[in-house]
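Most newcomers find our protein records easier to grasp once they have seen one. Sequence and backbone structure share a record, each on its own labelled line. Nothing more is needed to start thinking about how sequence determines fold. As an example, a complete record with its sequence and its structure tokens follows.
=====
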Amino acid sequence: MARRQQQSVERQSFQMNTPARALIPMGMATMLPDDAQRVRHLEATIFEGFSRWGYREIIPPTFEYLDVLSAGLPPEILEKCYKFADWATGRILVLRPDVTAQIARIVAMGMAGQGLPLRLCYRTTVFRYEPEHAGREREVFQLGVELIGADEASMDAEILTLLVESLKVLGLQDFKVSLGHVGFYQALLAKSGMSAQGQKQAEFAAAKKDLPNLEHILKSERVPATQARAILEAPGRYGGEEVLQWGRKVAGRDQRLVKPIERLTQVYRLLEATGIQEHLLLDLGEYRGFDYYDGLVFDVFSGKVGCELGGGGRYNHLIGRFGRELPSTGFALDIDRLFHALDHEKNDQIHSSSSVLLMSPMSQYGAAFEAAKYLRSQGITVLHETITKSGATQNRLARKRAKDASVGWLVLLGQSRKKTSEVVVSRMGAASHSSQTISLEDLPGVLKKDHHG
């Protein structure tokens, strides 16, 4: 994405002047206007969809008290938090490392009495320390939703359907949602008699699909070969209906294994009814990295990006760490990665065909200002600048400026000393350089007709 490219350009520029000291923090970058506008459009498109599904925006605080939020943060996230002292109280503050934990805290401490289920959405950034060369940003732009207070399979299906529809409305087609259930693999490990530490190590290895390490852990824990076989096979069991069949066979009558498979099957049937199964990939080794997930979990992958675009799942006990237990589920999308997956062309025009560069002599500045004000009131984007040349040179420079600004139209005011209400209009991108003189009042109609026609 361009923000990474810009970070490289900025860093090289600074290093030319101060070679011994980097002035651009690693993992942070500037988003330039073209990319910023596209990202805002992307956000607006997704958020409009969230709203139509009944999700309402929540804006969490940038800072939290560490001793409060830590109840909901996994150990691996706690280690990556940016922490500093609050000058007012002396307590330790943390820069937002995870939105789900924040919303869990907010709901438990102030919204738990409201009508359930709650449908909340957000767009914000999270900050986590990542070592240099880790391939991750330290500032992550996220969009997400949380569905709080319901534990039905239909709610899991709603979240997954909303996720798929949000990606499709952006035009993304080449993606898969890897769907599993934390409880199935946890039950397999617990059934084996492994130690608590061994189970954690095995979970981490399974999440990474690191089968050699997983096999080593099972041997170290002296897991019987018959039980080790299923544990080793599960991370490789991904696909369609056949995955559920294998899970039922392994589960037998063990309710610890049967219940997760039944829930996964129920949700999968609902998703088949919505027609999104082409984007689903059942994966009994799917294992989200955060320890607060305790039910269905999922990640989103695209063929254009070598890492997940986002993910989520069910966390029925996270809010209870802050107070009242409320079953919940949700997902978050990484906007930076999603932007890259959409494969935008950097040189696309960022203005609509009805955008205008309005130019006038300095002597006509007041009249041009009023003209620009009028056009903007009609919903037209206007760049207002002054002309310093005259004649053919003026026209050539004006067209060059309009081309550089990527506008749809060039409008020259003040070409007629007798009729200040008239403007000379040129369509940018047209084969010829023909122009027409029209009244200012007629200009919005001409621009909008061309835009829609």
Remarks:
- The longest strand covers residues 118-127.
- Residues 246 and 307 are 27 Å apart (CA to CA).
- The chain is about 40% helix and 20% strand.
